[in-house]
Amino acid sequence: MTGPLEKVSTSKAFAGELNKYKFKSAALGGLDAHFNLFLPYLKSGQKAPLLVYLAGLTCTEDNGAQKGGFFGAASAQGIAILFPDTSPRGAGVPGEEDDWDFGTGAGFYINATKPEYSKHYNMYDHITVELPKVLEAEKLPIDLTRQSIFGHSMGGHGALVLYLSSKSKQYRSASAFAPITNPSKCPWGEKAFKGYLAGGLQEGADRYDATELIAKSSDPLHILIDYGTGDKFYQQGQLLPENFLKAARAAGYDEVQIRVRSQPEYDHSYYFISTFAADHVHFHANFLKA
Ligand SMILES: N[C@@H](CCC(=O)N[C@@H](CSC=O)C(=O)NCC(=O)O)C(=O)O
Q1: Torsion angle of alpha carbons 248, 254, 259, 264, nearest 10°?
Q2: Lowest CB count within 10 Å: 205, 216, 217, 243, which one?
Q3: Is the pLDDT at 26 greater than 80, yes or no?
Q4: Pocket test for ligand 1, best of 57, 61, 86, 108 (most atoms within 8 A of CB)
């Protein structure tokens, strides 16, 4: 059972505050889960729409909050931002601490189906089901009927996949910085899908690959992607944005519904993310405040 929420810290930022919380997570097999929540100051009785930020490999709930540069635009727009962690912590699965791109810090936003991982590695349910319930139970001034999602790298993959696969159309829009867009065709994704999923690469391609999902989609969509041409992981073939764009155009999506921008010389870092941070918050504001 999900445990009570405990506030760990609070810091004023722009016209709002960033609160860090922890609780015992049922989705993550009873382990402690941490998250950060940025809440803009609101008028009495007002509720903020929610933008969920998913971070990349090796990150925690702190990377995006500390280095993303999202709070100025979010407070001006009256948007709350939720920063979950990137994996369970302390599951005790042999080998989970051995690699930086698998196990701890690399949950890939999927529900694991291999027996050794399936008790704890359920980041998909943690983000889409458990965290909204926790926010609702706490009676925070957030309007959960208005949610959008964005992320970076592994978190960009998570944002696209959660947006495209969520049955209840939970999110109004998705955006991503340097996302892994075709994980069943790149080394990071292949390692994750083979490692976490009983059905291996095929299960990953069917359920958690944005390029495969967009190819089958006919719903109206609102997606923005930025990647840098100086990004070493793009150059190494980990991100494959061209595959996603090709599949999107073949499925009939135009530039207005799905925009993929190649940004000259930017790398994979938070310097790149913070450069386009306000752009992404404003993109989501169009749908969250509609
Ligand atoms: N340790 C790795 C580099 C890890 C890295 O660059 N992680 C990125 C996300 S990569 C895709 O998901 C990141 O966000 N790092 C945290 C940060 O604050 O920059 C290596 O040795 O190359």
Answers
A1: 90
A2: 216
A3: yes
A4: 57
Superfamily grouping for domain 6-288? Alpha/Beta hydrolase fold, catalytic domain (3.40.50.1820)
pLDDT tens digit string along 261-274?
A: 999 999 999 999 99
Q: What is the pLDDT of residues 163-213, one digit of tens each?
A: 999 867 899 999 999 999 999 999 999 999 999 999 999 999 999 999 999
Distance 112 CA to ligand 1 centre (A): 22
CA distance readout (Å), 94 to 61, 91, 97: 24, 9, 8
Question: pTM for the full model?
Answer: 0.98
The whole-number pLDDT of residue 290 equals: 87
Block residue for tokens 């892994």: 180
- 254 CA distance to ligand 1 centroid (A)? 31
Which residues on adjacent β-strands are paired with residue 148? Answer: 51
> Which atom of ligand 1 has the smallest separation from the CA of 63?
18
| CB atoms near residue 64 (< 10 Å) | 30
Tokens standing for residue 241: 């944005």
> What is the C-alpha separation between 127 and 271, in angstroms, rounded?
26
Across-strand partners of 279?
none
